[in-house]
Amino acid sequence: MPLSRLAALAAATTLALGHAGAQADDQLQAKVDRIIRPLMQEQGISGMAVAIYARDHAHYFSYGVASKTDNVPVSRDTLFEIGSLSKTYTATLAALASAEGKLDLAAKAKRYHPALAGTPLGDASVLDLGAYSADCLPLQFPDEVQSPQQVVDFFRHWQPRAKPGTQRCYSNPSLGLFGDLAARAQHQPFSTLMSDGLLAEMGLKTTYLHVPTSAQGLYAQGYDAADKPVRVGPGPYADEAYGIKTSASDLLRYVRLNMQPDDLRPALVKATEITRQGYFQVGAMTQGLGWERYPYPVTLATLVDGNSPRLIREPQAITRLQPALPAQAAAWYNKTGSTNGFGAYAAFVPSEQLAVVLLANRNYPNEARVRAAFEILSGL
Question: Which of 99, 126, 167, 317 is deepest in the core (most CB within 10 A)?
Fold first, then answer.
């Protein structure tokens, strides 16, 4: 075939592929619009950022305003509080310390926090604290517990409620102590290890524990149930349990690196595997470190139940998995996160190379987040 005809054929093929890609993007935009716009109206959400990874490409969709006062539109770089989704970052930090031989997940807590010696919690393993199974610690610290010494006193006077490894009680104090132990094992402040270590190494440029002055203009305003402006405040183990603020672009990168970690150095690849392993069975859900997983394909009903209030507020009988189940490709990994003024959700399926993140400047029901994410990824 003459070169001129080959060139013409190549040009026509490129044009056709570009047209098909544009059509696919338009269809995805229409699908996300159809799901997100009614959701925002139903839940009274002022602004949302949605990010999807599919077909080896990232797709971003922005809706509404970051602040109703100044009407700045949401963008892929708008910063949202992600609440307990922060626990997956803390888990990754601890898993990295384990992969590097700096933290023994099987060790007792008192090894790294001597003030807990002679207490039941001091005999709990680091891993059990990270998987909410050391004891039935409460969801939150009591209001009167604020200072580091009050935290230690709270743990020292804690009376056991369940035999370790028999119940899962979702708990900020449990996960917070887990992160604290990881920092103590490395003799550095948790915030330094997170901000200057893990976040930087993963190339997360718009992810913060404490939003700097230079990025305050990107920080969305959250709104509480009464539609009053609110942002998360300081508290015991806030950094470890619910402190991350991030953008849709950075959160999607973080999720994608959990799904495709090959670009990371070997120890960090190992760390992502550690967080995605299965340590306890909780009904249909398998508890990892930070991440929660379900066999894929999975039904919407299973995901809704697994992210329901009872899994957060009520003790759940569990079965310890020994040895831990390896990380799986054919699995739906997810985590919700909330503060008083924000709601977040992230999910990914390694075998399908699919991921979705939803960020909103209002706390709204987990069921609505899961339904939206499931519908978005269905058919992709």
Answer: 126
